[in-house]
Specification:
With about 210 residues, this protein is an alpha+beta fold. The chain has two domains: about 80 residues, ATP-grasp fold, A domain (Dna Ligase, domain 1, 2-Layer Sandwich); about 110 residues, D-amino Acid Aminotransferase, Chain A, domain 1. It is built from seven helices and ten strands. The strands form two sheets. Strands 5, 6, 7, 8, 9 and 10 form a six-stranded antiparallel β-sheet that branches. Strand 5 and strand 6 form a beta hairpin. Helix 2 packs across helix 3 and helix 5 crosses helix 7. The longest helix has 18 residues. The chain starts with a helix and ends with a strand. The model has no long low-confidence stretch (mean pLDDT about 95).
Length: about 210
């Protein structure tokens, strides 16, 4: 499923997602910029491109219409260069959010059924591999344990004067993803990154494999 279809499934389960607008040309892009306001993030939308950051298909912290237009064409060039046969549906424009980058996901295990993972996210998730794993279903107690047992937990509580993230909302998102995995029996779900700060916990990218 592409980003838009994945986002619709999240909405069904009331999982917070940074909704925006799919644009296909510069005119639509500028209209979206004026509607959403700055700063913005932009990413390529294609069912055939899973790891958008790896090919330069994601640009963030865009602060003007000029920057937006420049990055629109940059993303398209990168996509065509690295995935020349991929069908590009457009560029998704959404508000750029600041906070800790997390990953929440799940897989359908052949032996144990639906599982859920949590950890540090963003582009370093494959390098750090700082995640916790549970077999579904989980309750709030298990959600708390999942959060606390990753090595990066102190970063989430705030260091050197930083604010703690909103743990209640993070726990709530884990429980909603747990429900989604139990009901939909997805082969794979990947919310990466999920942006967490003191006010909110919101997924900004999503990938679903049925």
């Amino acid at each position: 499923m592409n980003l838009l279809s994945s986002a619709k499934m999240l909405k069904k389960y009331r999982i917070e997602f940074a909704f925006g607008k799919l644009v296909k040309n510069e005119e639509e892009l500028l209209s979206a910029c004026r509607k959403l306001g700055f700063p913005l993030a932009m990413k390529v939308v294609s069912e055939e491109i899973s790891h958008k950051s790896d090919i330069g298909g994601v640009q963030v912290n865009i602060r003007s219409e000029h920057e937006a237009a420049k990055n629109f064409y940059l993303i398209l060039r990168n996509a065509h260069k690295h995935a020349p046969r991929a069908k590009i549906e457009g560029i998704y424009v959404q508000k750029f959010l600041e906070g800790k980058q997390l990953i929440i996901g799940g897989k359908l295990d052949e032996q144990f059924g639906p599982t859920i993972i949590f950890g540090l996210g963003g582009i370093f998730v494959e390098i750090m591999k700082d995640v916790s794993l549970r077999i579904c279903p989980i309750d709030r107690i298990e959600a708390k344990k999942m959060i606390a047992e990753i090595k990066g937990f102190p970063l989430l509580k705030g260091v050197r004067g930083e604010h703690s993230i909103n743990f209640k909302k993070l726990e709530a998102m884990l429980l909603k993803v747990n429900t989604l995995m139990m009901r939909e029996k997805l082969k794979e779900l990947d919310l990466n990154p999920v942006i967490a700060n003191e006010r909110e916990v919101i997924a900004v990218d999503a990938r679903v494999i049925k």
